[in-house]
Design goal:
The protein is mainly beta. The chain is built from no helices and 21 strands. It is elongated.
Length: 314
């Protein structure tokens, strides 16, 4: 497609193109005599879209992110009454966008409606429609500290409720001493005969924050009582890139009534700390409804688990 600028526009003018113009091999050709200054203004529609993760990213199953043009958005607590992990985004939501010149140096925000999820006195989930505001993900954590979320659940059952200990996924209660801001506990259950503890968007679960103020961290899984006799842990260590290391030591505990007890290792079994592999340990069978990995962290480092399996007795 060839088009010359109208008379008088070859210097300091504007070239207006519309959808009737044709492309050549994916390009729009504008062969003109370029005199300074010449302005080409490109206006592209950028509707707010709901995007889903690849089906192999189990941690994001049943969740959706908001995207406008090339930018992914997130919700921060300070824009949404302090809490964002208890929000659910229904399928039929509509969104608007507007440029806010005085926010974060000037950004386009996305606004819409979500469901705020809580638990009623009878134990059932309760929802309430609330307005939400999202900001570009690149700009998060530039104001006051607080919750942040990118992948929002589409169903209320996946929301993480304030004041509740951990999150319930497929009948398994998952708790942790620390959850990284970009992550969620809801993707940690594989189902089937074993339970996996893993993190997909960031390759591990931080047991404590980067400063390592907590010297002991834990991750626990609880469900109906089962007899188990083995576990294996795959540690996350980003030496050379970050501040997460395999711990100094760790132990596996099981809940006996209201008392936590260490498992009794089978002869020859140790609490392994090898990297790039599963550290498997076997122990005398115990019947329990909850187990936990407890770690003592290395000085000035956080800790992470890439994956964790607990195996039922056969």
């Amino acid at each position: 497609m060839q088009r010359r600028l109208p008379s008088g526009c070859e210097s300091g003018g504007k070239l207006l193109l519309d959808t009737n113009h044709k492309y050549e091999n994916g390009y729009l050709r504008i062969p003109i005599t370029w005199n300074s200054p010449t302005v080409i203004r490109l206006s592209l529609p950028m509707p707010v879209q709901r995007v889903h993760a690849d089906e192999h990213v189990k941690a994001d199953t049943g969740r959706v992110a908001l995207q406008r043009g090339p930018l992914v958005y997130c919700l921060e607590g300070m824009d949404n009454s302090g809490h964002v992990r208890n929000l659910s985004l229904p399928y039929d939501n509509n969104f608007t966008d507007s440029f806010e010149k005085d926010l974060l140096g000037g950004v386009t925000v996305v606004r819409g409606e979500a469901l705020s999820v809580s638990r009623a006195d009878d134990g059932k989930l309760s929802t309430q429609h609330v307005g939400i505001q999202a900001v570009p993900y690149y700009a998060w954590d530039n104001r006051q500290p607080g919750q942040m979320i990118v992948w929002l659940p589409e169903k209320p059952e996946l929301a993480e409720l304030p004041g509740e200990d951990g999150v319930l996924v497929d009948g398994v209660r998952i708790r942790a001493s620390h959850v990284y801001a970009n992550d969620t506990l809801t993707g940690l259950s594989d189902g089937g005969g074993s339970v996996s503890f893993k993190r997909s968007r960031h390759p591990a679960h931080d047991l404590v924050g980067p400063q390592g103020h907590q010297r002991v961290g834990f991750v626990s899984l609880s469900a109906r009582a089962e007899e188990i006799d083995a576990a294996e842990v795959y540690w996350f260590d980003d030496a050379g890139r970050g501040s997460c290391r395999a711990p100094a030591e760790w132990r596996l505990f099981w809940l006996d009534g209201k008392e936590w007890k260490p498992v009794k290792l089978i002869h020859g079994t140790t609490y392994g700390l090898d990297l790039d592999q599963f550290n498997k340990m076997t122990f005398e069978p115990v019947k329990t409804r909850e187990v936990k990995v407890e770690v003592r962290l290395k000085e000035n480092f956080s800790g992470g688990i890439l994956k964790w399996h607990v195996t039922q007795s056969r």
